[in-house]
Design goal:
The chain crosses the membrane at residues 7-28, 48-69. This is Phospholipase D-like protein. Keywords: Membrane, Transmembrane, Transmembrane helix. It is a single chain. The protein has 83 residues and is an all-alpha fold. It is 78% helix and 0% strand. The protein contains two helices and no strands. The longest helix has 34 residues, at 37-70. The protein is elongated, with a radius of gyration of 19 Å. The model has no long low-confidence stretch (mean pLDDT 89).
Length: 83
């Protein structure tokens, strides 16, 4: 199980930057497809909000993956006294 946690930790660390890269590329593509200034303004606002929300989620995935890969989750407490 600990090996699976470490492998998934690597997956999360890779998935965070890949997701943000994909979202940035999609934002650039969608903003470039708009024709009028009003559509462009709305699209920029929408994608700005999407990127603002998903950037901390992506960073959290990377941090969680780093700790899983490092082995911080190998020994979990069984009750509240173990904390």
């Amino acid at each position: 199980m600990n090996t699976l946690k470490k492998i998934l930790g690597l997956v999360w660390m890779v998935l965070g930057p890949l997701t943000m890269t994909f979202l940035f590329l999609q934002a650039i593509d969608k903003v470039g497809l708009t024709h009028t200034d009003i559509e462009r303004t709305n699209t920029i606002l929408q994608w700005g909000i999407i990127l603002f929300i998903f950037l901390p989620i992506s960073l959290g995935l990377m941090i969680f993956g780093f700790y899983a890969w490092k082995g911080e989750y190998e020994q979990l407490p069984e009750n509240s006294e173990g904390l």
